[in-house]
Every structure is written in structure tokens, then in C-alpha cells.
Amino acid sequence: MAYAATTSVAVSKTKGEIDGLLRKHKAAGFGVFEEQTRAILVFEMGGPSHCLSPAAAEPDG
């Protein structure tokens, strides 16, 4: 069984938690770019910019 395969978290809750963490750790700026099957998170913290594209769950079909 895949890790967390039986859990369910709303996208809005996850986005809110990420937003809160970036603000808490004083990210200079951040943004999210969304495509149909993935999202890209870009933020600046401690000088350099960082870009993350976490693996997305398969959409229910």
C-alpha cells in the first residue's frame, strides 16, 4: 500500500498549511503555479530562490 493511500486532506487545507509555514519561517516571497496535474511552489528564503514540484496524487477518475 502506498504511503497515506487511505488518507484524505482537502487541497485548500494543504495550501493553507504551506502558506502558514512559509510566513512563519519568514519567506521573502512565494507563489504557486498550477497546472492540471501538478503544482509548482516557488519561494525565497535566506537569499536563494527555491522551486518545488511535489508529486501529486492521481486524480479520482
List descriptors.
three-stranded antiparallel β-sheet; alpha+beta; 23% helix; 1 helix; globular; single chain; 61 residues
Structural notes for this entry:
This protein has 61 residues and is an alpha+beta fold. 23% of the residues lie in helices and 26% in strands. The chain contains 1 helix and 3 strands; from the N terminus they run αβββ. Strands 1-2-3 form a 3-stranded antiparallel beta sheet, with no helix packed on it. The longest helix has 14 residues, at 11-24. It is globular, with a radius of gyration of 13 Å.
The overall pLDDT average reads 81
The topology string of helices and strands comes to HEEE
Give the helix tally: 1
Which stretches of 5+ consecutive residues score pLDDT under 50? none
Q: What's the number of extended β-strand segments?
A: 3
What's this entry about, in short?
This protein is an alpha+beta fold and 61 residues long. Helices cover 23% and strands 26% of the residues.
How do the helices and strands line up, and which of them pair or pack?
Elements: H1 11-24, E1 29-34, E2 39-44, E3 49-52
Antiparallel strand pairs: 1-2, 2-3
